[in-house]
């Protein structure tokens, strides 16, 4: 059933013999230290977070990260409750082998829950109310103080539960600022990011 409040827009057909080119990607506005912090936050209120179930295989986790060009995936249950984070470091190399040995499983039997970084109640996160009035420079100072390239951002619902609404990534901020990554200043591996999720 059509809504008579909205009239159809003018339309036409492509003209034969006239080339049609793909549009160039618009250059992203470069941010500075004084830019609003929200300009560099991956906002899960606007785009869904990349998640995976705790019972998923490590092969599936690696496939999801590869397709999304992501370094980590949030682990959530069916009620959309955050359980932890799984990283490339946890799904490849020696760490899954060590986990399999400790659990008495074959590496192919491991699931995400066996190798994820557990979420803790005392996780170090930023609060949205503070981020909303902050600047990119404040975020960079916080990441440096925490010694982590990532930090989650939370808000609260009516029942005072934590609601994960975003994440700050040093790599993304540096890319938006047009500067080269400086791994010597802040650790880039998720084995050193545990402090941002609890100990």
Task: Explain what you see.
The protein has 199 residues and is an alpha/beta fold. The chain is 26% helix and 17% strand. It has helices at 58-68, 88-91, 94-103, 112-115, 128-131, 136-146, 170-177, and strands at residues 42-43, 51-52, 72-76, 82-87, 117-118, 126-127, 150-156, 162-169. A 4-stranded mixed β-sheet has the order 1-8-7-6. It has a 4-stranded mixed β-sheet with strand order 2-3-4-5. The longest helix has 11 residues, at 58-68. It is extended, with a radius of gyration of 21 Å. It starts with 41 loop residues before the first strand and ends in a 22-residue tail after the last helix. Residues 184-199 have low confidence and may be disordered.
Summarize the structure.
26% of the residues lie in helices and 17% in strands. The chain is an alpha/beta fold.
Layout: helices, strands, pairs:
Blueprint: E1 42-43, E2 51-52, H1 58-68, E3 72-76, E4 82-87, H2 88-91, H3 94-103, H4 112-115, E5 117-118, E6 126-127, H5 128-131, H6 136-146, E7 150-156, E8 162-169, H7 170-177
Parallel strand pairs: 2-3, 6-7
Antiparallel strand pairs: 1-8, 3-4, 4-5, 7-8
Mean pLDDT figure: 85
Estimate the global geometry from the Cα principal axes. extended
Share in β-strands: 15-25%
Class inferred from helices and paired strands: alpha/beta
Count of helical stretches: 7
- What kind of sheet is the major sheet? 4 strands, mixed
Q: Work out the number of β strands.
A: 8
Strand order of the largest sheet: 1-8-7-6
Query: What is the percent of helical residues?
Result: 25-40%
Low-confidence stretches: 184-199
Q: Using only CA atoms, what is the Rg? A: 21 Å
Order of helices and strands: EEHEEHHHEEHHEEH
Report the span from N to C terminus: 56 Å
